[in-house]
GntR family transcriptional regulator
Amino acid sequence: MSEQPPYLRIADELRQRIAEHVWEPGDRLPSRAQIGQECGVGENVVRRAQELLISQGVLEGRAGSGTYVAEARKRVRVVRSSAREQPSGSPFRQDMKALGRQSDWESRTEAKVPAPAEIAARLGIAEGELCVRTTYEFLADGRPVQLSTSWEPYDLTAGTLVVLPEGGPHAGAGVVNRMAVIGVTVSHAVEQPEPRQATAEEASLLGIQKAALVTHIRRTYYSDQGRPVETADIVVPAAHCEIVYEIPISR
């Protein structure tokens, strides 16, 4: 029988220490050098062991801070449904309220950003045409659970009160409600979900391992005239969130 790889042995050792309450949830682990010295292995072996445990939700990596024992976390249910667009607030806020969690989001908007080829194709515009780009980090109880990058054609909202999705009197109202302000009726959305591995930037923002599984949703809203009015790339960590599609039935 082949010998167990060193990093798996170290992963078992770290897991055992947590089970025996040597380290409690929220505790910061000693440095990789210290753990390696105690266990008789190199830092790279410790790194691989920690990455494995991070992917399993046992540990949590925090950029620029270190590695911690993960707090017990229930998966957040993210419901996708056009029926959940309401004037009173965002679907994300509804989901978090139903779970008894505090919700919030951070955003950054840039106007007049040239559209990359893929975004231009999704919006039905020429590559390089100007867009309003907004990046979001959605938080549940202060922890990031979802990322999103939204693109809107600049010529659609330029000079109106809704040109900035998170600014002005209609800030945070959502695409459907904001477009209604300027007389554009959003009739439907198309979403394309697919699994992939997190990028280094996404992993850092979400507090997950770089190779951890995420669900990447490409969403595009369309007006009743068939024009794409917004497209977004939504990234959800698979270990922390479950995605549920709610399908309204017309009678």
